[in-house]
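Let's practice the habit of predicting before peeking. Look at the sequence and jot down your guess about where helices and strands might fall. Then scroll down.
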Amino acid sequence: MEREQWSSTLGFILASIGSAVGIGNIWRFPYIVGENGGGAFLIPYLIAVLFFGLPLMVLELAIGRSTGTSVISAFRSIRQRFAAAGLVIVAVVSLILGYYIVITGWVLAYALFFALGQPIEFDAFIGSYLPLAFFLLSGLAVYVTVRSGVREGIERLSRYLIPVLFVLLLLLVVIALTEPGAAEGIGFYLSPDFSRLTDPGVWIAAFGQAFFSLSVGMGILLTFGSYLGKEGLFRNAAIVAVADVLVAVLAGLVVFPLVFTAGLDPAAGVNLAFITLPAAFTEIQYGMVLGALFFLMLFAAALTSAVSMLEVPTAALMDSYGYPRKRATLLVFAAAMLLGLPSALSYTALNLEVLGTPFLDLADYAFGTIGLIVAGLLVSVVGGWFMSRSRICKEIGGCGWQQTVYMALIRYGVPAVLLITLVGSFFRGSG
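Done guessing? Here is the structure:
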């Protein structure tokens, strides 16, 4: 069977932006900035993206395009024994996908509630079994898209949703900046506290956010790269990284003016999206419309990211085991929904917990934090140390001094930073 390819460079870029821009950019980034020195946090964050996240993105794309296949078989082609490392990455992204669809369902529910002019409090929402219904609906949307293929599913969805996402985001920025609390909100968000740059925890948070928001190390870009033609990897990866950072920064310009206008807690942390912001929308003029637009935008980001995650194990089944796309998608979808069910039930009336902690929260820490860093380490070590240097140079445009610097970052810088972030995440989790 002939392997699918993107129909154009634009299609690949939009799909890659869709994979990178997700829930973490729009609700996680603003409160991370607010908690870690405001505008000063952007310094370590941009360093992390430019010197560590971007090289890992390019490496993933280079592995995928050079091997022309997905994670497991790509790693096997580098060294037979590395197929197991590819399997670990596929497992991690599948486990992340399971609970990510749960959160995507919450976003879809909130978009619908606000569109109907009947917002619901988060406690009331998760005190019912409604989250299960939206978990299923979101999962089906992801399944149908990936089942349709690279061009007709993933690329087509991204061509529609990514422009819509940017239009909605810019519209919300303009509206938010006209609110009475805009100046105070921007001050909280971006006022730099440079003294925080001496805190190692701020740097760990910056690097963790950079790797999290770029979706590197998950095998997504490796898989997308395997569908890629002869386009320039550095340029395309840079475009995706810039778009990812832009969405994250603009999201803060929406969130904090609205929160301060409503007189609510700007340091609400993880509660920001589903408790604080909905309360803010109910307090301001045209709040129902703004709420519907915000959660519609968030759903577009979440859906494109979830679709990208589902493509990783689907492509692995197709390439490594010869499954046709429709059958592979169905099997992976069923597995992801089963894996996500405990997370879905942890935020329903059943309140499924482990040692007093919701199952979803444990899954997010184990797989979305620790597992994601381990997966990034596997990509950087296998690709940077064991893939032929000449093979990488061929993909990234030669072996000049720029590529030499790049290889040094991949071999030494990225693994070192990931190890430090991993240790820091363990300490933060245990704390």
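How did you do? The first strand starts at residue 353 and ends at 354.
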